């Protein structure tokens, strides 16, 4: 056979592509369940991280079931619409954030542990420089003080934007206030230059990660504001 | 090559051994440097990356070697790329399913195995002209040669940079109390380049035949 002819080359390429596609789809389908589980476990770890509970992939499930005593969905008016644990966990913010405020499903996870007390954990999601950023914010029972926060990113620049996923960046969020004294929703404002340390309504931007920091600011404002009514009612 | 040639004949053993020393892909051929710098801050990702590259080079070599008489030479690079890309995607998916933490650390570098020059280099230089078994050995050998350097570099970087080996703290707390500090600089990629440079220096001063004559 002439392996240099055009027909042969075209046939060869077509058959190869179809074969490779089949092999890859098969592999992807076979491995999907395990991958989904890994992502679920990671989410549980993240939720626990928002209340400063460190976990490993092995014990995340157990700790989650032990300390997350309640999870439910609220709407923008602050009413609970569903108390189904699995449904709450499965809410995808990527879809919810595109909906109108009134139609959004807003998940809340209640954490309870002796010595720490009860906290509300709220998931957030937004856009960084290169891709999605997300996180979980835990609130004190007064509904206005942040207890802890954790942020993740898909592809922010390492050393710059990706610093938002480091504990050193996340720690100062503890104690910040998202409502001012008169009870107005203020969220947190980004400030450059570290003056924000200790200020109740401001956080320090990442040097060299301006776009990511702004994305983080917008993410906090957008997501937390939809919980405004719920947080106010829980006071 | 006769069919009766033993599986590990002297020639085949050389295919395995040479890439580990006198024909090392990183220190002698100077291929695959970029990923060597990126994944060697800790031992664990370095080991996983080595195993992944070894698997990909070995199987890509075998597949290309099996197909070598059928591949139309005008599209042979594309065929090689498709084979390598498919294997890398499989490796990536397997890591996501069975070693999720590690796959997060390696993130883009698994995908970048596709562009690792070692793989394409071996396919062009060896697999296209040799039988599957020697091609397999050549792939394992080169993957291992890449891996050995990665692991040596990662060992020093993790020890000096984090005071740990494979995630276990080895520098005792008493040292830190006395004022010892981890070297933050060695965690950064440039120090990996310098470490590789030192390895090349040591290797060349021991094996004079590697030094080019002008």
From TrEMBL, chain A:
Cofactor: FMN
TM spans (from-to): 12-31
Highest rank taxon of the organism: Bacteria
Function noted in UniProt: NQR complex catalyzes the reduction of ubiquinone-1 to ubiquinol by two successive reactions, coupled with the transport of Na(+) ions from the cytoplasm to the periplasm. NqrA to NqrE are probably involved in the second step, the conversion of ubisemiquinone to ubiquinol.
Homology family: Belongs to the NqrC family.
GO molecular-function terms, A-Z: FMN binding; oxidoreductase activity, acting on NAD(P)H, quinone or similar compound as acceptor
Main location: membrane
GO terms under biological process: sodium ion transport
Catalyses which reaction(s): a ubiquinone + n Na(+)(in) + NADH + H(+) = a ubiquinol + n Na(+)(out) + NAD(+)
Entry membrane topology: Single-pass membrane protein
Complex formation: Composed of six subunits; NqrA, NqrB, NqrC, NqrD, NqrE and NqrF.
Chain ranges of the FMN-binding domain: 128-227
SMART domains in the cross-refs: FMN_bind
Pfam families (alphabetical): FMN_bind
Gene Ontology cellular component list: plasma membrane
Keywords, sorted A to Z: Cell inner membrane, Cell membrane, Flavoprotein, FMN, Ion transport, Membrane, NAD, Phosphoprotein, Sodium, Sodium transport, Translocase, Transmembrane, Transmembrane helix, Transport, Ubiquinone
Organism in which the protein naturally occurs: Labilibaculum euxinus
InterPro entries the UniProt entry points to: FMN-bd (IPR007329), NqrC (IPR010204)
Subcellular location, record wording: Cell membrane
PANTHER family: NA(+)-TRANSLOCATING NADH-QUINONE REDUCTASE SUBUNIT C (PTHR37838:SF1)
EC number: 7.2.1.1
HAMAP family: NqrC
Chain positions found as FMN phosphoryl threonine: 210
Protein name, UniProt field: Na(+)-translocating NADH-quinone reductase subunit C
From TrEMBL, chain B:
GO MF, any single term: oxidoreductase activity, acting on NAD(P)H, quinone or similar compound as acceptor
Keyword Zinc-finger belongs to the record: no
Pfam family for this entry, one: Rnf-Nqr
GO CC entries: endomembrane system; plasma membrane
Membrane-protein topology: Multi-pass membrane protein
Enzyme Commission code(s) on record: 7.2.1.1
Main location (coarse class): membrane
One annotated GO biological process: sodium ion transport
Catalytic activity: a ubiquinone + n Na(+)(in) + NADH + H(+) = a ubiquinol + n Na(+)(out) + NAD(+)
UniProt subcellular location: Cell membrane; Endomembrane system
Parts of the chain that traverse the membrane: 47-67, 79-100, 106-123, 184-202
Signal peptide: none
Record keywords: Cell inner membrane, Cell membrane, Ion transport, Membrane, NAD, Sodium, Sodium transport, Translocase, Transmembrane, Transmembrane helix, Transport, Ubiquinone
Coiled-coil segments: none
HAMAP family: NqrD
PANTHER family in UniProt: ELECTRON TRANSPORT COMPLEX PROTEIN RNFE (PTHR30586), NA(+)-TRANSLOCATING NADH-QUINONE REDUCTASE SUBUNIT D (PTHR30586:SF1)
Known partners and oligomeric status: Composed of six subunits; NqrA, NqrB, NqrC, NqrD, NqrE and NqrF.
Similarity section: Belongs to the NqrDE/RnfAE family.
Function: NQR complex catalyzes the reduction of ubiquinone-1 to ubiquinol by two successive reactions, coupled with the transport of Na(+) ions from the cytoplasm to the periplasm. NqrA to NqrE are probably involved in the second step, the conversion of ubisemiquinone to ubiquinol.
The protein, known as: Na(+)-translocating NADH-quinone reductase subunit D
Protein source organism: Labilibaculum manganireducens
């Amino acid at each position: 056979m002439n392996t240099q002819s055009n027909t042969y080359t075209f046939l060869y390429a077509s058959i190869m592509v179809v074969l490779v596609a089949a092999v890859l789809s098969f592999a992807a389908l076979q491995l999907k369940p395990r991958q989904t589980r890994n992502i679920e476990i990671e989410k549980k770890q993240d939720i626990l991280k928002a209340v400063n509970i460190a976990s490993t992939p092995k014990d995340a499930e157990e700790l989650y079931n032990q300390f997350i005593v309640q999870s439910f969905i609220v709407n923008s008016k602050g009413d609970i619409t569903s108390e189904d644990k699995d449904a709450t966990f499965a809410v995808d913010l990527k879809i919810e954030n595109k909906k109108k405020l009134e139609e959004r499903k807003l998940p809340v996870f209640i954490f309870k542990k002796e010595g720490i007390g009860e906290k509300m954990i709220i998931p957030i999601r937004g856009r960084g420089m290169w891709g999605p950023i997300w996180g979980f914010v835990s609130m004190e029972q007064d509904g206005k003080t942040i207890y802890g926060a954790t942020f993740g990113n898909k592809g922010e620049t390492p050393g710059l934007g990706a610093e938002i996923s480091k504990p050193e960046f996340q720690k100062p969020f503890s104690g910040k206030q998202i409502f001012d004294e008169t009870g107005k929703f203020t969220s947190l404002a980004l400030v450059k230059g570290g003056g924000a340390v200790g200020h109740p309504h401001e956080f320090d931007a990442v040097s060299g990660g301006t776009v990511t920091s702004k994305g983080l600011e917008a993410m906090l404002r957008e997501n937390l504001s939809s919980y405004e009514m719920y947080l106010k009612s829980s006071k | 090559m006769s069919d009766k040639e033993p599986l590990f004949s002297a020639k085949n053993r050389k295919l395995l051994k040479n890439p580990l020393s006198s024909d090392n892909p990183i220190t002698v051929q100077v291929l695959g440097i970029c990923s060597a710098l990126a994944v060697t801050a800790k031992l664990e990702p370095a080991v996983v990356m080595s195993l992944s590259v070894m698997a990909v080079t070995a199987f890509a070599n075998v597949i290309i070697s099996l197909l070598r008489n059928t591949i139309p030479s005008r599209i042979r690079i594309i065929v090689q790329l498709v084979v390598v890309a498919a294997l890398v995607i499989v490796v990536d998916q397997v890591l996501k399913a069975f070693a999720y933490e590690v796959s997060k650390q390696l993130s883009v570098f698994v995908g970048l195995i596709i562009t690792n020059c070692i793989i394409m280099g071996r396919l062009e230089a060896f697999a296209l002209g040799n039988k599957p078994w020697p091609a397999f050995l050549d792939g394992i050998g080169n993957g291992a040669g890449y891996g050995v350097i990665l692991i040596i570099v990662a060992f020093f970087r993790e020890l000096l940079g984090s005071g740990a080996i494979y995630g276990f703290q080895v520098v005792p707390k008493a040292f830190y109390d006395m004022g010892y500090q981890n070297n933050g600089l060695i965690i950064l990629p440039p120090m990996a380049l310098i470490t590789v440079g030192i390895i090349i220096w040591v290797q060349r001063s021991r094996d004079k035949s590697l030094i080019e004559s002008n």
